[in-house]
């Protein structure tokens, strides 16, 4: 087992990492497929643009997270400036599913610890609820039911996204329109979520209930 302490900052799981010997904060983001770094920071840290000078992928010589060391690790490159502005401090990058998929992962919020177990031998025997993934891929997609204001229960496939931080559930516009959920009132309009592309225009409202695995 590997234990990684984390800081819950702006409702997001932040872990310390050393990339090519340079320290930085990575957000543990189950909604991101590949681990990525801020491009300008990564170039200063000496990542290798092996494929092309303008490539959005790079090779990291070493990435250390707690007791784990990743060698010759491929990462994505992008700007984290929008996220950093939202958090109020510089965000080095996002730690994605390509890293987490190698382990059975336990996130202990009260103790502020992420525990990584060998996925082949791990067996869960606690009192918690076990929810199977609804995707054949490694994506953390769960089957859920949302209750509309008229009492109707609507099936939904939700991505478990620890990088979201602010809201319980985010529904995409086509789904809202198809299920006629735009009639939810009252709502608060405004760009309240900041992602890699900047502020996202959303409307915040309340659904009567959310059901996951019978809970």
Provide the fold topology.
Layout: E1 2-5, E2 7-9, E3 12-19, E4 22-28, E5 36-38, H1 39-44, E6 57-65, E7 68-78, H2 81-87, E8 93-95, H3 97-100, E9 103-108, E10 113-118, E11 141-147, E12 153-159, H4 173-178, E13 188-195, E14 198-204, E15 209-211
Parallel strand pairs: 4-8, 5-7
Antiparallel strand pairs: 1-10, 2-3, 3-4, 3-6, 5-8, 6-7, 9-10, 11-12, 11-15, 13-14
Quick rundown:
The chain has four helices and 15 strands. It has 215 residues and is mainly beta. Strands 3-4-8-5-7-6 form a six-stranded mixed barrel.
Largest sheet: 6 strands, mixed, barrel
Q: How big a fraction of the residues is strand? A: 35-45%
| Gross geometry | globular
Helix content: 10-25%
Instruction: Give the neighbour order of strands across the main sheet.
Output: 3-4-8-5-7-6
- Helix count equals 4
Cα separation of the termini: 29 Å
Helix-strand category? mainly beta
Question: What Rg do the Cα atoms give?
Answer: 19 Å
The count of strands amounts to 15
Which stretches of 5+ consecutive residues score pLDDT under 50? none
SSE topology string: EEEEEHEEHEHEEEEHEEE
Mean pLDDT: 89
Describe this structure in words.
With 215 residues, the chain is mostly beta strands. Helices cover 11% and strands 43% of the residues. It contains 4 helices and 15 strands. It starts with a strand and ends with a strand.
